[in-house]
Amino acid sequence: MAAAASGPLTTDGLVQLLTPEGRRVSHPAYDHLVAHLDADALRAMYRDMVIVRRFDTEATALQRQGELALFAQALGQEGAQIGSGHALLPQDHVFPSYREHGVAHTRGVDLADVLRLFRGIDHGGWDPVAHGFHLYTLVIGSHTLHATGYAMGVQRDGAVGTGDPTRDTAVVAYFGDGATSQGDVSEALVFAAVNEAPVVFFCQNNQWAISEPTTNQSTVPLADRAPGFGIPSVRVDGNDVLASYAVTQEALQRARSGGGPTFIEAFTYRMGAHTTSDDPSRYRSAEQEDYWRRRDPIDRLRAYLESLGELPTSFLDQLDAEADDLGERIRTTVRAMGRPSPASMFEHVYATPHSVVDAERAWFEGYESSFLDGKHGDGRHGEGAHHAAGQQTRDGSHR
């Protein structure tokens, strides 16, 4: 499958420091941003990608076993996420969508806690302030506005452009190619540009908004949209962890110093399904999947480290054992989570008591109590409860 010569899938102009074969290539604008990364730093990136992929595999298996209601894979996008995540400083703040497991890992979020959302235990599972990593956002594109507003707040707090590396702060919003078709993203770009907000828009263009290809969303590379708002942009090979680190480092430095927003398009590929309820074989070919499998971000960095003689067997053996331990812990933790009370859905909707929520909770509790405690031998609820659950008025509303 040849790369597109033009349009949103073109590979022309992509920043790349590692070829798909794992060969280091020079880039005059970005080499200096990775010059300090020694073998230990590269192995740390490799480790994180391997660990996150093992998490992905375990979570997918747990969903297939009925332990999770749903799961969104990050398979194939580890390079973009780990590379950009390693560029963040502790005071930076991230607004993810729902596939940023790799970034969550780099921010110190326990990957088992990520699955509390997908099991339906709660709305997140971690403290956003403690990790500088907000809760997952399921409403496509809406969090780009949240990130921009947060960045404007950081700016007004005087935490930008001070010259103090422990104080100057940047904000990153992660989203997919499909989100760029949402109005919220355009609005966020407007506010970020006119306010010179310290925010980085990190678009992981994995080429599919569920089953809708990027070619049905744009006629030009997605990064080309940002200059129309007055925001500089860059396209990077998202399967190259080094290049992803470099372009994010540059954008973060610009944001922290008061230089305003940047739009990054990480051109990558979603090797798995959109979610575990999706079947990608219905809308894309095995040939395309094989093409991108040969560009696996983990294999790429491994080949580079092996060429340097910096991937000893002892490290790989230890990493395999760590991944196995993670898999066991993920399985044990998820199965021990239990089930939340149905009424817990009314908790934490608002920060203070709310009359509408209180009324809905009261109705729900009354509805629940209308069911009989026991069941008939055929597994059905009692007739009275069945009648109460299904009784409707003429206008269709439940009584």
UniProtKB/TrEMBL annotation:
Dehydrogenase E1 component domain boundaries? 47-323
Q: Signal sequence: where?
A: none
DNA damage keyword on record = no
One Pfam family, please name it. E1_dh
Stored CDD domains: TPP_E1_PDC_ADC_BCADC
Write out the entry's keywords from A to Z.
Oxidoreductase, Pyruvate, Thiamine pyrophosphate
Task: Report the cofactors.
Answer: thiamine diphosphate
Which residue ranges are recorded for the region named Disordered? 374-399
Q: Residue spans with biased composition (Basic and acidic residues)? A: 374-386
According to UniProt, the name of this protein is Pyruvate dehydrogenase (Acetyl-transferring) E1 component subunit alpha
Source organism of the structure: Cellulomonas edaphi
Question: What is the name of the gene encoding this protein?
Answer: pdhA
